[in-house]
């Protein structure tokens, strides 16, 4: 049994898997959800539910968050019942894919209160969250990162420290930029194979073993050909990530035409009511062409 008590805000697709791995590693876990009934399964597995982020923070040594959007991060940390209202010392870790500038703001506010703050977004989707194999990208003070090794190791396999506050978010934006163009490539390759009369499953297996191999090809292309659009990662959240990346790139005076096109295609899917589908649903745009 670990003596460090973890507070966790966000029990969605990603958060639930991460919480279960923390429990498995022996950490006591306190949680907050807006609707208590949505946490019933986790409560039955040993989590303690609290009525607000500040209440969770007051009862926990380390507080982790993984919520939807930067506005949610801002509310969870800086709001009237936010984490920083209840936390006394210790460490806070935002694992949401969010704005680098907001990560820096939270870091400086936390620092003024004697709290260590890390931005630590993740990659690996619902499968990585469930299996504890996430890639975790961290920004903040390096000694704070090292002190959280056992916590991060319970949830992830690849733990990388990138630099000062905001660096984890910059690294995650790099990840999302790579995924966006790669997802278009995977969809186009499978659509082309199908139109050619090839067995798409054979194509996926063959391409995955060569230079075209990627996580999206190996893990999401099989879902594409089955018409499975269930979310491991929501389109609406991916659009949010792409928007943050494009805004950040504009600040750097960097043009990203591949990312711009990917966002345009995903915006079309969202407009057609598919924002709650998984990102692999982009294949539907190609498959529905006449």
Automatic annotation (TrEMBL):
Transmembrane segments: none
UniProt domain 6-phosphogluconate dehydrogenase NADP-binding: residue ranges: 5-163
Domain 3-hydroxyisobutyrate dehydrogenase-like NAD-binding intervals: 166-285
KW Chloroplast (keyword) present: no
Gene3D superfamilies recorded: N-(1-d-carboxylethyl)-l-norvaline Dehydrogenase, domain 2, NAD(P)-binding Rossmann-like Domain
Keywords, in A-Z order: NAD, Oxidoreductase
Domain of life of the native organism: Bacteria
Alphabetized InterPro entries for the sequence: 6-PGluconate_DH-like_C_sf, 6PGD_dom2, 6PGDH_NADP-bd, HIBADH-like_NADP-bd, HIBADH-related, NAD(P)-bd_dom_sf
Pfam families on file: NAD_binding_11, NAD_binding_2
Family per similarity comment: Belongs to the HIBADH-related family.
The protein, known as: NAD(P)-dependent oxidoreductase
């Amino acid at each position: 049994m670990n003596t460090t008590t973890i507070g966790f805000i966000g029990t969605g697709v990603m958060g639930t898997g991460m919480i279960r791995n923390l429990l498995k590693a022996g950490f006591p876990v306190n949680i907050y959800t807006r609707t208590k009934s949505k946490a019933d399964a986790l409560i039955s597995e040993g989590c303690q539910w609290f009525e607000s982020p500040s209440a969770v923070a007051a009862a926990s040594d380390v507080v982790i968050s993984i919520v939807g959007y930067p506005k949610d991060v801002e509310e969870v940390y800086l709001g009237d019942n936010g984490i920083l209202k209840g936390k006394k010392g210790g460490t806070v870790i935002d694992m949401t894919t969010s704005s680098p500038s907001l990560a820096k703001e939270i870091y400086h506010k936390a620092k003024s209160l004697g709290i260590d703050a890390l931005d630590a977004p993740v990659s690996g989707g619902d499968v990585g969250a469930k299996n504890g194999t996430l890639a975790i990208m961290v920004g903040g003070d390096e000694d704070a990162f090292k002190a959280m090794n056992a916590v991060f190791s319970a949830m992830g396999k690849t733990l990388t420290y990138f630099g000062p506050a905001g660096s984890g978010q910059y690294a995650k934006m790099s990840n999302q930029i790579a995924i966006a163009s790669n997802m278009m490539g995977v969809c186009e390759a499978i659509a082309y194979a199908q139109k050619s009369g090839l067995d798409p499953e054979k194509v996926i297996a063959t391409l995955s073993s060569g230079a075209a191999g990627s996580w999206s090809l190996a893990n999401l292309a099989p879902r594409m050909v089955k018409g499975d659009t269930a979310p491991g990662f929501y389109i609406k959240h991916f659009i949010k990530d792409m928007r943050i990346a494009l805004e950040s790139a504009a600040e750097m005076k960097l043009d990203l035409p591949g990312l711009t096109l990917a966002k345009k295609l995903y915006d079309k899917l969202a407009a057609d009511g598919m924002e709650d589908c998984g990102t692999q649903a982009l294949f539907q745009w190609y498959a529905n062409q006449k």
